[in-house]
Amino acid sequence: MAEKKADKKSKEMGEMKGASKDEQIGFHKGSLSTLAKERQELARILQIVEQLMQLHIGALKELGVDLEKEAKDAMQPEGTKKPEKPIEDML
Fold this sequence. Notes:
Blueprint: H1 2-17, H2 21-62, H3 67-75, H4 87-90
């Protein structure tokens, strides 16, 4: 799929070589305008996701969940976690 997009883009750029300078300028300005709008939309989506995450974090804190402790536990590699029972009890 990415190859098709790359081929299409290189074909468009190849066609642009024969276009006048004004046409090329218009093409690139239009592309930048479209990409700027896409970037704004992406930033808006990220803001919404961040707000939703904050709401869930707040709800978990109200329910007494210690997120900092869970984050620390999640950051520990599997091999370094302390076993639930002492090793002597397992033997």
